[in-house]
Amino acid sequence: MPKNTKPATPAKPAKAATSAKPAKAATSAKPAKAATSAKSRKPGPPPAKSRKPFLIGVAVVAAAAVLGIASYQATNPGPRPAVGDASSTDAAADTHPELTKLARRDARDPLAQGRADAPVVMIEYADFKCSYCGKFARDTEPQLVKKYVDNGTLRIEWRNFPIFGAESEAAARGAWAAGQQGRFWQFHAAAYAQGSKEKGFGAERVKELAKEAGVPDDARFAADLDSEAAKAAVKKDQDEAYGLGASSTPSFLINGRPLAGAQPMDEFAQAVEAAKAAAKK
Fold first, then answer.
1. Does residue 22 fall inside a structural domain?
2. Residues 115-142, mean pLDDT to the nearest whole number
3. Which one of 67, 99, 166, 191 has the fewest CB atoms closer than 10 angstroms to its CB?
4. What SS3 class is residue 51?
């Protein structure tokens, strides 16, 4: 009987041969995997045909959303990317109600200007080292303030979004510290003045900006600048922007409608007017 068990051994390869048939299925499964991986690669770098820079997703809280912003090319401030066409007759299609909940509407917020109950709130995510943030601050924002903030239509809420390293962080904390003494917008103007960025935002330069902004208490400014409260406030704003998927500056939300880049006044005016009209309904 032991001898008879040896011939039984080749029978197992025969079974293995029959099990080789599923190997064909496994072989055909490989293209399926390749197809799957090919699909997963598509959302990687945004394809040229992608025309929806802001993608709204489900979040932990009902008000949260994902802001998948198409990168605004700092070297090309020309026609803005398709981030909610401000001239579109169907402005509501680019507006996301859940994003309106990000407006803080705190009357005591020193990093905001305009009435807390204004019908339109524009949230700005910006960096003091960003050239096009400076362009917006010098060329467009003053026009918006004169035309819409002063008459109670618009409220502008600033969010520190430092993305260019340590000096960006320092400038953001400096702006917050200036705000604690009611001089945020003066610091903002000094930091964005023509040629200011080229001087950098090192420790001494940030203190100089505070003096230019008329911050009254130097010692308090220095203490606030390096405080945990300043770091936490900047991180809160930064986390909000990153949580929305923002990847470029300046980025804006106008009553839940996204807009990217230092666009001309007309683009912002159209967006504000559309938001104002919608708020009346």
1. no
2. 98
3. 166
4. coil
Q: What are the residues whose beta carbons fall under 8 Å from the beta carbon of 46, sequence distance 6 or more? A: 53, 70, 71
Answer yes or no: is pLDDT of 45 > 70.
Answer: no
- Peptide bond preceding 43 in cis form (omega within 30 of 0): no
Whether the pLDDT of residue 75 is over 60: the answer is no
Locus of tokens 């981030």: 83
**How much is the pTM?**
0.72
Nearest to 127 by CA among 214, 241, 46: 241
Tell me how far apart the alpha carbons of residues 233 and 150 are, in angstroms, rounded to a whole number: 27
Task: Tell me what the mean pLDDT of segment 257-267 comes to.
Answer: 93
152 Rama class: left (phi>0) / alpha (psi -120 to 50) / beta:
left
Q: Is the pLDDT of residue 22 over 70?
A: no
Whole-number Å distance between alpha carbons of 41 and 57: 19
Residue 267 has pLDDT above 80, yes or no: yes
Q: Note whether 220 and 95 are within 8 A (CB).
A: no
Chain segment 50-69, per-residue pLDDT in tens? 333 333 333 323 333 334 43
DSSP β-bridge partners for residue 154: 120
Question: Would residue 157 be called left, alpha or beta, if left means φ above 0 and alpha means ψ between -120 and 50 degrees?
Answer: beta
Give the Cα separation of 24 and 271 in Å (integer). Answer: 58
Q: Virtual CA dihedral for 226, 156, 55, 37, nearest 10 degrees?
A: -30
Contact 267, 80 (CB under 8 A): yes
User: Do residues 56 and 66 lie in contact, with contact meaning Cβ atoms separated by under 8 Å?
Assistant: yes
In a domain, 43, yes or no: no
Give the per-residue pLDDT at 91: 58
Closest by Cα among 246, 231, 266, 260 to 133: 260
The whole-angstrom distance between residue 141's C-alpha and the CA centroid of its chain comes to 18
Domain assignment present for residue 264? The answer is yes
Q: How many domains in the chain?
A: 1
**Rg of the chain on CA atoms, in Å:** 27
User: What mean pLDDT comes out for the span 228-233?
Assistant: 98
